[in-house]
Design brief:
This protein is mainly α. The protein contains 13 helices and two strands. Strands 1-2 form a two-stranded antiparallel ribbon. Strand 1 and strand 2 form a beta hairpin.
């Protein structure tokens, strides 16, 4: 609705800022399906279900890209934008199919995070912000890059973007098998490292439009299939009751970084000419920072998990020792009648509950 209102008075700057703010405010609801999938899926199917949801979003985006290219050329840009906002209103239809669930008003006690959880939360926020800052230039200005470097038409640009999303959708359906075989940590690290190398090599790829397009698609696929992995991996460590809060905070930081990337692009486009070599270097620097932070976070988590395992073992050992000392002090005796003779004899036997030598079984 606010996206449609934003198109009505484009010339009024104040109105445009106000409605755009409301549009972005309500657009944050897109994180809820992912959180719902994570909360209601078991550990084995969590990533697979998230990838299915992610693939559906990308496939519909492919249709949108092709539709935008065709309709934009035949109808014009403004009518196509109005039509897209009207179609977006259809997205509220599935909401009416949701069951009417009453939310309990009882407030649970505030949960304190462990060191591992705090490390994961910091990594979740920082990594998402760095990737958003690095990728924001390509996501927001991908069409500008293709036009400036190679003079691509609108149809050609939307075709490249559509192929990027279609490839990502197809790949994301099978990416959970990578984590099942190699683990989340190794898979994420290798993906981030591969994207970093691609970005630093982009100045070489600009010599050929086809090679650059292939590299763009590959970067798009890698960084986007890592998003469900990264979210499922990080949020699995955090308390379920706070997933929406942490996801909302991460989404806020990511959008702030995307806005900063727009300013970065503008600062590198002085006098209407963009220094793309410098742009690729700056973006690669942020990707490299994210890769190093990922490696550092995984190392810290490994050390913290070792310390927590050692502490739990020592605590359990101390509890066993205390129980043993208390248990050793308890002695019991029984008696039985001897049936060998007519005389009644009483045999008294002292039983120590431990095999260790005590007062009555010292062996003397």
């Amino acid at each position: 609705l606010f996206g449609l209102l934003r198109l009505l008075n484009v010339g009024v700057i104040g109105w445009l800022y106000f409605v755009s703010f409301l549009f972005g405010f309500f657009d944050t609801s897109i994180i809820m399906p992912t959180i719902t999938v994570i909360e209601h899926s078991d550990e084995k199917k969590r990533l697979r279900n998230s990838n299915i949801n992610f693939a559906i979003v990308l496939l519909t985006g492919v249709i949108g890209y092709f539709g935008a290219g065709v309709l934009g050329k035949s109808l014009g840009i403004f009518p196509t934008l109005v039509l897209s906002m009207i179609l977006a209103l259809v997205s509220i239809a599935p909401v009416f199919a949701f069951p009417n669930v009453k939310v309990s008003k009882k407030r649970k006690k505030k949960q304190s995070l462990t060191r591992t959880q705090r490390t994961m939360l910091i990594y979740y926020l920082l990594s998402g912000a760095l990737v958003s800052l690095a990728a924001g230039v390509f996501i927001n200005f991908g069409n500008v890059i293709f036009y400036d470097l190679f003079k691509f038409s609108t149809l050609a640009i939307t075709t490249v973007l559509a192929v990027s999303q279609l490839s990502t959708a197809a790949t994301s359906l099978f990416s959970h098998k990578l984590t099942a075989k190699y683990g989340y940590k190794l898979t994420l690290f290798l993906i981030y490292l591969g994207v970093t190398l691609l970005i630093f090599m982009m100045p070489l790829f600009t010599l050929n439009s086809f090679v650059f397009s292939v590299a763009y698609v590959l970067r798009y696929v890698l960084i986007n299939i890592s998003t469900p992995m990264y979210m499922v991996f990080c949020l699995s460590y955090l308390p379920k009751a706070s997933l929406a809060t942490y996801s909302g905070l991460s989404y806020f930081l990511n959008n702030v970084m995307r806005a900063s990337s727009a300013q970065l692009f503008a600062s590198l486009s002085k006098s209407g000419v963009t220094d793309y070599n410098k742009l690729f270097f700056v973006s690669g620097f942020f990707y490299l920072s994210n890769t190093l932070i990922t490696l550092l976070a995984f190392y810290l988590m490994y050390k913290l998990s070792q310390n927590e395992t050692t502490s739990s073992k020592e605590l359990k050992k101390e509890e066993n020792v205390r129980e043993g000392r208390t248990y050793q002090r308890r002695y019991y005796f029984t008696y039985r009648r001897s049936k060998r003779t007519k005389n009644t004899k009483v045999s008294v036997h002292f039983h120590n509950t431990r095999l260790s030598r005590g007062r009555f079984n010292s062996g003397k």
